[in-house]
Design a protein that fits this description.
This protein is mainly beta. Helices cover about 5% and strands about 50% of the residues. It has one helix and eleven strands; from the N terminus they run E-E-E-H-E-E-E-E-E-E-E-E. The strands form two sheets. Strands 2, 4, 5, 6, 9, 10 and 11 form a seven-stranded mixed β-sheet that branches. It is globular, with a radius of gyration of 13 Å.
């Protein structure tokens, strides 16, 4: 059973930062491809960052322009998403996500499973 739990969302002004955390169960962390995506009301899911299935290096959606950084702590089964220079268009529900390993090949995103989500609101 896939288990994911996000935390760290909130409301910030444009230009601010937030650091999202995701706690995964040990089996989820070990056996699945992991990453983050977001979804704003009325919009499609948008993959943000994920770990390559082969060497666990992070890859990112090119639209992020280097503002977000994905990191992990293998000892704690945790993922993080550091978000800097936030913009109002970053406002969305953010999800920690997992999927079969083949989903994290650099060209696709782990949309198979997700946690309950954490809201990020950026005001101008």
């Amino acid at each position: 059973q896939v288990q994911l739990q996000e935390s760290g969302g909130g409301s910030v002004q444009a230009g601010g930062s937030l650091n999202l955390s995701c706690t995964a169960s040990a089996s989820t962390y070990r056996s699945y491809c992991l990453g983050w995506y977001r979804q704003a009301p009325g919009k499609a899911r948008e993959g943000l960052a994920a770990l390559y299935r082969t060497d666990k290096r992070p890859y990112y959606h090119p639209s992020l322009e280097g503002r977000f950084t994905l990191s992990r702590d293998d000892a704690k089964n945790m993922l993080y998403l550091q978000m800097n220079n936030l913009k109002p268009e970053d406002t969305a529900m953010y999800y920690c996500a997992a999927d079969k390993l083949s989903a994290c090949d650099g060209g696709s995103w782990p949309f198979g499973y997700r946690g309950p989500g954490t809201q990020v609101t950026v005001s101008s």
